[in-house]
Amino acid sequence: MTSWLRFSSRYRLLSPCVSRAVVPVRLTVKGMTCMVLGLLGVIAAMVTGRAELVVLAAPFVALTGIASARSGEQRVGPIDAAMHVDAVRAAEGDQLAIKVFAAAGTAVRLDASAGVELEASAWTMAPTGLWQTTATLRRWGIQTIGPVFARATDRFAMFAREGCVVEATEVRVLPHDPQLERLVRARRTRAAFGNVVTAGFGSGIEFAEVRAMAHGDSWRAVNWRASARREAPMVNVRHAERAADVILFIDTFSPESLTLAVRAAGSLARAYLAVRDRVGLVGLGGTINWHGLAGGRNGLESILDELLRLRVFPADGERDLRMIPRSVVPAHALVIALSPFVDERMVEAIAALRRRGHDVIAIELLVPTPAPKTGELNALAARFWEIEREHRRRCLRNVGIPVIACANTDDLVAGLGALV
Q: pTM to 2 decimals?
């Protein structure tokens, strides 16, 4: 490990994964070939009685004997290896530099999950003890870089150690999301200060009215022009600015819309938290996930981590709001539902939220409909499917839920702007 300590101090690796792998020594293909040829030559000489066969087999026997004279640790020593990844949190499309350290002359190979594209991953010699490559993050989610496999041989290449020397490193890949300039504001707020202009009076910057000065009013609020006209002290009254609670209600029944739902939810969470609102998360599908209301930078990181854990699991059982605690969705919170309206259970859950008295906005994620096969019956089935989806949209509108069509993240920006 002394060489690794010198290496880490030279390159200043902040969070490397270090390992000394205990991999058993085994014969290589070359070693097995030499052993078999030497053994066959000796046996053939004994059977045929011809000494020249022993001469032919002697080099193979000698090489096998010299290589086998040492013990396992003396043949090939333990493999010291380490891996350093630039970051454990990145965005889609980012490139990460990966450094792999191993003893000089050791061949290394790096694996990665399906969402990571490696510039080089095959067996590569590391003559200087440092092997570098680049990983491009192609898919959002929790991706893995590694494990690292190493192979070291003795000087005759007769024996080798080969195996996993460094475990995989998890990288949280965040989806790209657009910057939302306009947001739907909650109708009901909480007592904390925020950016939502309310109808009530209090501290804020939005002007409300001018009235006569009363006991307890600050002299800073005096409107001197109005006071001069009325010949009595008059003060400016402003609208109170409060913070709101927003719940992101995500449909995890449909695998086609999950990527778009995660992108849209990430944009909404980032935008609402930037104006000091609190954001919560509920995922309804084969499994039910929820994240309580949180705010600030730590709240954003925890919500993004929860979004990365969302998965689609098949579920034939009943899934409704009775399985979600009432405290998760406060009565005064604004609920933004993200769903393709494919599963009727999700539509019923969104309508039930409105019947409970919540302010709900439904964002329909327009997943591509598969092209119908040729034939009159197939075309009729596709038509019935479109009629069914339109019926579900009308059911939501009838209970007072506005529906926004969203085929991509750009439609999300335009749709929210139309509701403001």
A: 0.66
